[in-house]
Specification:
- The chain is an alpha/beta fold.
- It has 13 helices and 16 strands.
- Helix 2 runs parallel beside helix 6 and helix 8 crosses helix 9.
């Protein structure tokens, strides 16, 4: 009987919708809760476990108590072996590291963990590459290459691996950034090491790739194209990233590189908005969203822009989303489609298909979106 381990970081992703760009540290977590943030990781872990529930009588699932895995496992009908102890509602990175060490002693075949870059880093710090792991994406920042494209694909890949249908195991990067610097618009991702994952390209994506200096002029051309075609009496939500930022620079408006800004009549209304503020501004108004995919990964929604929640996207309307990207960024995907992972399956399906992408001044292409 094969053994599968499960670690859920219960606070991962809580800072996303409220615009805090992460939940590292007790002070930020407290602030996120005060702003109405709710746990997301256990729900997403359930979506993964639902894909492997057919094996529940053929595998042993070992996990940590309560919100660190037990609850999600039992919700899916598993009868998990629960080890370790935690302080419910007060878990920290130390708990993640201890859970990884304890699970390693049980010689498990695959460790599933729900979290973000910080969780991946904690696992690497505690056990190195002793286990084969797979990340269930639940964090705000996911620069690392250890995560499946979405929770469902994590489950599909785990199922295939446990059935012996995926043979390749690959060492991939564990990256993390300084959240405090990140909140000020500075991105400095550091390589911490490598973890081993079951590898099947259609289920995972590589690490995030930044924009190169060569893209500057292409970004400016895209910005001019967008500005020339801006409608009157229309709000424009400017998503994160250097390509959308070029629009704000051309308009000489203050902006947040890694946040979400709102303009009207080519003037700044408010910058770095969270989900609630966005909904307040745009409800029943004419709105367009300008967004760019993450370089090297291709995510349009669900990575680093959780302020653009399903409720926000539905209020905007799928037809009012404008995708912009340089040709270099599109080429970095090597033919792989853009991805969406909003947490709302029906919305992800409605976003899938093909989209027109602005790639320059009076230049556009059609590109595929998948979920």
């Amino acid at each position: 009987m094969k053994r599968i381990g499960l670690i859920v970081n219960p606070i991962a992703g809580m800072g996303g919708k409220v615009g805090l760009k992460g939940t590292d540290g007790s002070a930020i977590l407290t602030k996120a809760k005060c702003m109405g943030a709710e746990p997301e990781s256990s729900k997403r872990a359930v979506k993964t476990l639902e894909r492997i529930v057919s094996l529940k009588d053929e595998i042993e699932l070992i996990t940590y108590p309560s919100e660190m895995g037990e609850n999600a496992a039992k919700q899916c009908g598993f009868v998990p072996k629960v080890i370790g102890t935690i302080r419910e509602g007060r878990t920290t990175s130390d708990d993640t590291q201890q859970a990884a060490k304890d699970l390693c002693k049980h010689k498990i075949d695959l460790l599933l963990f729900a979290g973000g870059d910080g969780t991946a880093r904690d696992i690497y710090t505690s056990i190195g590459d002793e286990l084969i792991v797979l990340g269930i994406p639940t964090g705000v920042k996911m620069h690392s290459a250890v995560f499946a494209s979405n929770p469902m694909r994590a489950g599909d890949l785990a199922l295939l691996y446990l059935q012996g249908k995926v043979k390749e195991v690959k060492e991939v990067e564990v990256m993390d950034i300084d959240e405090e610097a990140y909140r000020t618009g500075a991105v400095s991702a550091e390589l911490y090491g490598y973890l081993k994952i079951p590898f099947e390209r259609r289920y995972v994506r590589g690490m995030k790739a930044g924009s190169s200096p060569d893209e500057k002029y292409a970004q400016e051309a895209i910005a001019q194209e967008i500005i020339d075609n801006m409608e009157e009496d229309c709000f424009y939500i400017i998503g994160p990233g250097t390509t959308p930022r070029s629009i704000m620079k051309k308009l000489k408006l203050d902006n947040t590189l890694l946040g979400v800004d709102l303009i009207y009549g080519k003037e700044l209304i408010e910058k770095d908005l969270n989900e609630k503020k966005l909904l307040k501004h745009i409800k029943d108004n004419n709105v367009k969203l300008i967004i760019t995919p993450i370089g090297g990964q291709g995510f349009l929604f669900g990575r680093g822009n959780q302020q653009l929640s399903p409720d926000v996207i539905k209020e905007i309307g799928v037809d009012n989303i404008i995708v912009i990207a340089t040709v270099q960024k599109i080429n970095s995907l090597n033919g792989q489609p853009f991805l969406v992972d909003t947490g709302d399956r029906e919305l992800d399906d409605s976003l899938s298909g093909h989209v027109i992408v602005v790639t320059g001044y009076r230049e556009k292409i059609v590109y595929r979106i998948d979920s």
